[in-house]
From TrEMBL:
Signal peptide: none annotated. Belongs to the prohibitin family. It comes from the Eukaryota. It comes from Rotaria sordida. One of its GO terms (biological process) is mitochondrion organization. This is Prohibitin. One of its GO terms (cellular component) is mitochondrial inner membrane. Its main location: mitochondrion. The lineage of its organism: Eukaryota, Metazoa, Spiralia, Gnathifera, Rotifera. Keywords: Membrane, Mitochondrion, Mitochondrion inner membrane. Residues 11-104 form the Band domain. It is found in: Mitochondrion inner membrane. Pfam families: Band_7.
Length: 119
């Protein structure tokens, strides 16, 4: 069996293959998941990369997802959604206050009506 020495220029031979594994594993998740589930995604990527690196007799010690960037359109859409959710929550809170005031007013009117009937 022929032995292939990859110690010379391994970054040209091995890294492209490993980078493809990163891209494939990250592509399984949508942008929101990439933001909200970074730990889970790091574990998934780490497992896949560890397996792939082992095929080249490389030991992967650790990985870290440190920087994610998205298109400005996506970032803008996420910010708009956040503003919408905040506004929706505020409107819901105001609706609850109005409903509670209405219930209190109704109870007051019913109480007065019962007092008048009792007299």
């Amino acid at each position: 069996l022929q032995t292939i020495n990859i110690t010379l220029h391994y970054e040209e031979r091995v890294l492209p293959s490993i980078i493809n594994e990163v891209l494939k594993s990250v592509a399984q998740f949508d942008a929101i998941e990439l933001i909200t589930q970074r730990t889970l995604i790091s574990q998934c990527v780490s497992e896949l990369l560890t397996q792939r690196a082992a095929q080249f007799d490389l030991l992967l010690v650790d990985i870290s997802i440190t920087h994610l960037s998205f298109r400005p359109e996506f970032t803008s859409a996420v910010e708009l959604k956040q503003r919408f959710l905040v506004e929706k929550t505020e409107q819901s809170r105001q609706a609850n206050v109005i409903a509670a005031e209405g219930d209190a007013r109704a109870a007051d009117l019913i109480g007065k009506a019962l007092d008048e009937v009792g007299d």
